Automatic annotation (TrEMBL):
GO cellular component annotations of the record: cytoplasm
MF terms in GO: ubiquitin-protein transferase inhibitor activity
PANTHER family: GLOMULIN (PTHR15430)
InterPro entries in alphabetical order: Glomulin/ALF4, YAP-bd/ALF4/Glomulin
Protein's UniProt name: Aberrant root formation protein 4 isoform B
Pfam families: Kinetochor_Ybp2
Length: 559
């Protein structure tokens, strides 16, 4: 009998009619708000119904009809609960808080059904897993924590059932099912982490169990944060089938991979369960720059995960700090061709750390995140670091963060001077280059200053809103101007007459006009905002006038 005819016979059968009757009963009781009666009668009846299908399949292992009925029943439940025509759509219901308790019985029944499958096990599980994960995602990200403990216990039951099925298979089919189980476990790890409150004294039991199963799947911590590629793994499991569908149900696998390692960092018990040595892993990442780049690119998913508790993000920052602080092995060989392939990932990671600096609720976490930011920047080859920092400034709206990045640029330039002086002390100047390392000492510095003092949209910057960024840009310009004058160099072009005139007429004088007007207006007012404005602009005004004096002096010398 064909699969189509088997499916058709189920849909026309009394078995399906009984199932629909039970589901309708659950829905009506839920709509009436009688959740207690629904759980005691209709849900219990549904569990008994699924048990009867399982018993029928187990009693006659050669019966394809019995096995097909069991699987079609699960599919029918999924179709029903996801129908937009009823109020209890699991993915979108306004009563989603109660949906969690309703999916436990069918999912628990499914974990038993999976164990009873005797033929084409991999194909059957491959069909079921995306359905299960979509349901778990819809419920877990919308429900209250109290509703979810049983849901995740059931999700672990399903993982254990898939594990048992794996043990029955051989060779390629076994490896493909193991890969699918790994995807399932990582997705569940992310959902558990985002849905259950973190407690410093313990971790959820489901995390321990998922960690144990991930070890069976061959997913070591090192591979999860370095070489684990979700797209490649999914392709090996599903081939070219409905890639968009697969991408949706595995949308948080990368987050789960990173969180598996973070949980190991949080809890020794988790690491021991996963058979991992965190000290050895940290040492490997500290000593291998390429693997460290890969790990940074993976761990950024934890920082970007909006639903995740700040406590777990704090532990992710701690782990990043342990692999990027001073003392790690750094190779600044500019010929390393693989660097370019990691640029997008590292830039995205820096953006994620930046967001933690801006929005973390605790000063200590913001401070650690800033240290991580500097550590990741230090990992970037010298020739590329300035471009990365300029891109960070260009892609930042916060005046305070722009100021921080510009100050980091100025410190990099100061470090280059100090290093060059210690290396080539007493050496003669050659070709107008006082510093061997010109990665930051280049004309791009003036473009960076102009970006703040004369924004692309035209006119002077908005004050006092952009005062932090403007003050930092003025300090950078003053530093470059004074340093180039003292060293008798012009590497950045800051001392050329055209650039001096441009800075004087297009940056400094318009800014002076703006500041003078705002200060005069504020002095005439006596409200709190006016006082704050004066206090904010006072240091900016001092640096601005000093810059004007310096430029004016250099212009007179050049005539």
């Amino acid at each position: 009998m064909s699969v189509e005819s088997e499916t058709g016979s189920f849909r026309d059968s009394e078995t399906r009619n009984n199932l629909r009757r039970i589901l309708e009963s659950c829905s009506k009781l839920a709509e009436a708000g009688d959740f207690h009666e629904s759980e005691n009668t209709a849900v219990s009846e549904l569990v008994e119904f699924l048990d009867s299908l399982l018993d029928a399949a187990m009693s006659d292992l050669d019966s394809e009809n019995a096995e097909n009925d069991a699987f079609e029943a699960i599919s029918e439940i999924h179709r029903y609960i996801c129908s937009p025509s009823i109020d209890q759509t699991l993915g979108y219901s306004s009563k989603i808080i109660k949906a969690a308790s309703y999916i436990v019985p069918p999912l628990s029944g499914l974990s038993k059904v999976l164990l009873s499958i005797q033929r084409r096990q991999f194909e059957q599980v491959k069909v079921a897993v995306p359905i299960i994960l979509n349901i778990l995602k819809a419920v877990s990200l919308e429900s209250e924590e109290a509703e979810l403990e049983d849901v995740f216990d059931t999700a672990v039951e399903i993982a254990n059932s898939i594990y048992e099925v794996c043990n029955k298979l051989e060779r390629d089919t076994k490896e493909k099912l193991r890969a699918l189980l790994g995807l399932y476990v990582m997705q569940c790890m992310a959902l558990v982490s985002a849905s259950i409150s973190y407690k410093a004294s313990s971790c959820p039991s489901s995390v321990l169990q998922l960690s144990q199963i991930s070890s069976y799947c061959g997913l070591s911590y090192l591979s999860l944060v370095t070489t684990y590629d979700v797209e490649i793994v999914a392709e090996s499991v599903f081939g070219g089938e409905d890639k968009d569908h697969c991408t949706g149900c595995f949308s948080h696998v990368k987050h789960g991979a990173a969180l598996s390692v973070v949980w190991g960092h949080v809890s020794k018990e988790v690491a021991q369960t996963a058979k991992e040595d965190l000290i050895a892993i940290r040492d490997e990442l500290r000593n291998n720059q390429t693997k460290r780049w890969q790990a940074i690119g993976t761990l950024k998913h934890v920082l970007y995960f909006v639903n995740l508790p700040w406590e777990l993000k704090k532990h992710a920052i701690d782990f990043l700090l342990s692999i990027t602080d001073e003392g790690v092995s750094r190779n600044y060989n500019e010929e390393r061709s693989e660097w370019s392939s990691y640029v997008p990932s590292l830039f995205s990671a820096l953006q994620a750390v930046k967001m933690v600096i801006m929005y973390a609720p605790e000063p200590e976490l913001r401070k650690k995140s800033f240290t991580v930011l500097k550590g990741v920047l230090a990992d970037i080859p010298n020739s590329q670091r300035f471009d990365i920092m300029k891109a960070l400034i260009t892609n930042t709206d916060s005046s305070s963060m722009i100021a921080i990045f510009i100050d980091l640029v100025r410190k990099e330039m100061h470090t280059a001077i100090c290093s060059s002086r210690s290396i080539v002390k007493d050496a003669p100047q050659i070709d107008n280059k006082a510093f061997p390392d010109t990665s930051f000492w280049n004309p791009g510095i003036l473009e960076l200053v102009e970006l703040v003092l004369r924004p692309p949209q035209g006119g002077p910057p908005s004050l006092p809103e952009q005062s932090d960024a403007v003050l930092s840009a003025l300090n950078l310009y003053r530093f470059v101007l004074m340093t180039e004058s003292a060293e008798k160099t012009n590497i950045t072009g800051v001392l050329s007459r055209n650039n001096l005139l441009k800075a004087y007429n297009e940056w400094l004088l318009p800014l002076r006009t703006l500041v003078t007007g705002i200060m005069a207006e504020s002095h005439s007012d006596y409200d709190e905002f006016a006082v704050d404005t004066v206090c904010t602009l006072n240091p900016l005004e001092l640096v601005l006038y000093r810059c004007i004096e310096l430029v004016d002096e250099k212009l007179k010398q050049s005539t």
